[in-house]
Amino acid sequence: MIERKKEMGRDRVSRLVSWGHWFAFFNGFLAMIVGVRYIETVGAPESWLGWFYLVISTIGHFSFLAFIVYLVLLFPITLILPYSKILRGLAAVAATLSLCVLLYDTLIYDDYGLHLSPFVFDIAWADLNALLQGTSYIVTPIGILILELTAANYLWKRIEKIRKVNCGNKVVAVVGICFISSHLIHIWADAADITEITRLDDAYPLSYPATARSFMESHGIEKSTVAHAPESLQPALNYPIAPLQCKPDDQINILIVAIDGFRADLLDPVTMPFLSQFAQQNHQFKHHLSGGNMHNSGMFSLLYGLQGSYIAANDLNYRPPALHQELARQGYAMGRFAPDKDNIVPHALYQGLDNQVQSIDDGVAMADIKAIEAFRQWHKAQNQPWYSLVNLQSPDSYDTPVGFLGIETVKPQLPLKAAQKVLFNQYRQSLYFVDTQLQQLLTELPSNTFVLVTGVSGKVFTSNGDESRSNLSPSNVQVPLIIHWPNQQHSKSVDYATSHSGIVPTIMTQLLNCNNPAKDYSSGRSLLQPNSAAWSYVGDNLIFGIYQQDEITVIDRHGKYRIYNKAYSQRIRKKISAPELIEVMREGRRFYNH
């Protein structure tokens, strides 16, 4: 009798386990249906390869998630309380909650471009009313619960028939093959940079496609740097949002001088006598922020006028800045003169320009000298309106030419360590050298030339590259901005906050006569009026800072954040400001959502 009861108990548990697996598979199927919402956000593939990968990765991923939920939540209860009525009720409730969380995640991903995490949940909770509209958030969970209870009972009543069909192993095999195949295909796509596949990496929650990069690196295999973008692939980024409506009028020459590592607090009469006087005679912006603390992010914000979170958008590897597109349409000759720079991101940043880059074999300072000389010869040879970007990089590497006679060293006003004091004075020598070059450059321009002088980024006095990349303090992002308007000799000092994202709208509206609202092609507003936004974005897609009036919030890609005071000298213990961060996240999705 006892053995009989044990046998019946084992049979009941076996039936419940079998039922649980089929119930999990059913919910995996429901999760796949919900997952369609993610594809609507990122955009569907247009090649058979993309669709094949999407189908097998969807089947494998959501089936795996459903099985994990069953294994963690229901399987232990099956062994402790092997009663079908209790288990069916609990399973229906657990499945309903899981699907509701998945639906909520689709809303957050569509709005913010991020999946649920403790950090994102805090932000989304503050924005709950905007995310959940109408009564669907009440009706939907009830409808899902009814469906789950019906499915649970249906499967239980027919579990014996299903077991007799003996198709469970085949279903597991198909799901397993899809799961493994999707990861193998992704390893190949990641190595070959097949963007139609790799762009789906973050589409699904808890998705971590295999890359095998460590294996490739250990065996000396380098990842291909050639991006394969099928012509049939519809760009996911809608930039510009609307066609540019510009009417060429009196075309003038445009010169942008961008200096790497150019701190705002060292534009003074002793260190840079010429540029200091030039600034006093023209339009000077006293509180200007670069869009980044490195060359790529600073130049990206300067030329694209977009928030740095867009810097990794694949479409911008093939689409030049809207500013350059319009200049080309209006018939401008366009040139770039700079020391040679590796790893330019995005790849189309300087596309369409006559790129005259100089070797740095003899030092960055000599490359700057050659770049300026190349520009002088180039612009004198032009018989049409021209646009030129002159990028000087000496200050960022503390470089001066051999034999250059600089200025006297001074005691820093900043609290610096001994090694930093050496870098500080060498940096001043480099700025003084650049000032002499700017004097030659700016005093022989045609009168009908618009001149903009600014920094690509600021500068912190360190030889540690990692420290410089992670530092988003004002020293590393606050830069000078000086504008000379053609045929105007009046001076003006601007005390309201401005940023690089406002430079493109200013040029487009004031010089190229574009009637589009700035939001069609930029994240910024014209520099000629105070920005209504209460924040400025500084950084890229990996680490960024939100500059507000009295605090600076630094956030990394994992959602970890720190809040500092305005001077970046003290960390503030408080929770992140949700409204501003919600605006930042929405701006980071705006050019995808149109």
TrEMBL record:
Q: Which UniProt keywords apply?
A: Membrane, Transmembrane, Transmembrane helix
SUPFAM superfamilies annotated for this entry?
Answer: Alkaline phosphatase-like
Looking at the UniProt entry, the stretches that span the membrane are: 21-39, 51-74, 86-104, 137-156, 168-189
UniProt xrefs under Pfam families = DUF3413, Sulfatase
The residue ranges of the Sulfatase N-terminal domain are: 253-510
Q: Which residues form a coiled coil?
A: none
Record protein name field: Sulfatase
